[in-house]
Amino acid sequence: MHPGFCNSCIAATTRASANDNLMVIPFGFGFGFYGPKADRCNTCASVVRSQWLCILFIPVFRVGKYRVKYVAPNRFLSRELLKKPKA
Fold first, then answer.
1. pLDDT of 2
2. Is the residue at 87 inside a domain?
3. C-alpha–C-alpha distance, residues 18 and 15, integer Å
4. Which one of 5, 55, 69, 70 is least enclosed by Cβ atoms within 10 Å?
5. Which residue range(s) make up the domain with 50?
6. What is the 3-state secondary structure (H, E, C) of the chain?
7. Cα distance between residue 37 and residue 83, in whole Å
8. Measured between alpha carbons, how far is 53 from 38 in angstroms, rounded to an integer?
9. pLDDT at residue 75 greater than cutoff 90
10. What values do phi and psi take at 39, rounded to 5?
11. Model pLDDT, residue 74
12. For residue 23, what are the contacts with CB-CB under 8 A and spacing of at least 6?
């Protein structure tokens, strides 16, 4: 397994990261990854996830899509996916 992102995943992303997924527990306000872990890379084991702004623990606005590599249960590396041009 790759210690960071593989060259293929780096080429498909930007340097922008998702920063921290911070959730204020009493209010359920903050950011978090939601949805399925998609497009798993066979080289570095990263996955594509969507980061959402949450209010009362309900995802209400998607902030972006990121390639995410989990390095510990609550720690991750992330790189924003390149935007695809609209046809």
1. 63
2. no
3. 10
4. 55
5. 7-80
6. CCCCCCHHHHHCECCCCCCCCCEECCCCEEEEEEEEEECCCCCCCCEEEEEEEEECCEEEEEEEEEEEEEEECCEEEEEEECCCCCC
7. 19
8. 19
9. no
10. 50, 55
11. 78
12. 29, 30, 31, 32, 54, 57
CA distance 48 to 60: 19
Phi, psi of 8 (to 5 degrees): -65, -45
Please state the length of the chain: 87
- Residues 34-63 as b/e (b if ≥16 CB within 10 A, e otherwise) read eeeeeeebeebebbbbbbbebeeeebeeee
pLDDT in tens, 40-61: 999 999 999 999 999 888 899 9
Predicted confidence (pLDDT) at residue 27 exceeds the cutoff of 90: no
Is pTM, for the whole model, over 0.70?
yes
User: Does any domain span residue 75?
Assistant: yes
Cα 60 from Cα 77, distance rounded (Å): 23
> Into how many domains does the chain fold?
1
What per-residue confidence (pLDDT) applies to 22?
74
